[in-house]
Amino acid sequence: MSSFQTRRDLFDLPEGITYLDGNSLGPLPKSAVERARATMAEEWGPMLITGWNKARWMDLPGRLGDRIGRLIGAPAGSTVVGDTLSIKVYQAVASAVEMRPGRKIVLSDNGNFPSDLYMADGLLKSLKQGHELKVVDPEAVAENITEDVAAVMLTHVDYRTGRVHDMKAITDKAHAAGAIMIWDLAHSAGALPVDLTGCNADIAVGCTYKYLNGGPGAPGFIHVRPDLIDQVRPALSGWLGHQAPFAFDLDYRPGEGISRMRVGTPPVIQMAVLDAALDAFDGVDMTDIRARSIELSEQFISEVETGCKDVELASPRDPQARGSQVSFRFHEGYAAMQALIARGIIGDFRAPDIMRFGFCPLYNTAEDVSHAAAVLCEIIATGEWDRPEFKQRKAVT
Prior knowledge:
Belongs to the kynureninase family. Belongs to the DegT/DnrJ/EryC1 family. Its EC number is 3.7.1.3. By secondary structure, the chain is α/β, with parallel strands linked by helices. About 40% of the residues lie in helices and about 15% in strands. It is built from 13 helices and 13 strands. It has helices spanning about 1-10, 30-45, 50-55, 60-70, 85-100, 115-125, 165-175, 195-200, 270-280, 285-305, 335-340, 365-380, 390; strands spanning about 20, 80, 105-110, 130-135, 150-155, 180-185, 205, 220-225, 310-315, 325-330, 345, 350, 355-360. It is globular, with a radius of gyration of 22 Å.
C-alpha cells in the first residue's frame, strides 16, 4: 500500500486540513494547475480556433471516456465524457424507454440521488404516454422488477449511507424480465472496482468531480454496452452527436458508436483538468484501492464507536456492502459537522441527520482517520457543536 502514500503528494492538500469529503468533491491535483495553464496559454492563446484540430480538443470526450472506462470495466470506445451527469441520466432513461415500447414503468429506489429521480420524472411526464416512475425501498428493488418495467435505474452506491447494490444480481434480474439496466456510478467510479462488462450492464452514467478529482463542475460520462449502441437513438440530438457535425445538415443522423451520445461542445479547459486528474490512477489497481478503503473505513467506525456512544452507524456494517464512505447519524448532525469543519476536519451533511465521511486511499491516511475520529468524539462528548454559529444553515451542506 506504500504507493498510496506517494500519490498523496500528487494533491494540493491544505496544511492543517483533514479532508474526508472526496466523495463529494475531490481535492485539487497539483498537475491540474499546470495543465489548465498550458491549455489556455499554449493552446487557446496562440492556436485560437485552430486548437480544435491542432490540440485535438474535439477528441477529448472519447479519450477521457476510455481512461474512465478502464476504471469501470468498460471496453475502449464505449464511454464518452461531456455535459453534466443530469443530462446523461436523461439520455440514458430516454434511450431505455424507447428501446422498450409498450412498457410503462421506470423502476428506481429511494436511495437514488434525487437529481436522477427528478430527471427521470420530468422526462416521463413530458412524454405524456402513461409512463410511471416507480420508487421503492432499496431492499425491494429485485422483487419489483417485473415484465412491465422498461428500465431499472439505480445509483450503485447510495449517496447517503454508502449502501452498495449487487450490480450483477440486479442486472441479471432486469435482463430476465426484459428490462434495460441503468447504473449511476457517481459514488463508485474511482472508489471501488466496477465491472460493467462482466455484469453485462446496458448503460452507465457518472460524474467526475468526486473520486476522480476532476474539479467543481467537471463533466459527466455515459457508457453504452457496445452491442446496444447502434440501437440507441439519442433523445438529445446535439450537433456533436451528429454523424457529420460540420456538414451542417438540417436533419439529424446519429454518429458512429458512442460518439452519438455526445451533445454539446466539450468544456475544453475543464476536460484538460480532468485529464490531469486521471493521471493519479495510472498504474493503480482498483482492487488495491478497495482493500485500503475498507481498512480506513473499518478503522474509522471502530474508533468512533469506541469513543462516542451518542452516534449511530447509518452505513452497512459489512464493509463489502458499503462504498468508500461511512455515515453516522446524530440528532444535530449538521451542527456537529460544522464544528468539525471549524476544527479543520472536512466531511459533509445530508438531511435529516447524516454526517458523511469519504475515504480516498490516493490521499487519505490512517493518521487522518484517527485524528478525525478523536475530534468527532470530543465534539460530541463536550457539546462543542451546540453553538448558534454551527446551527446556521449554509447554502451547501
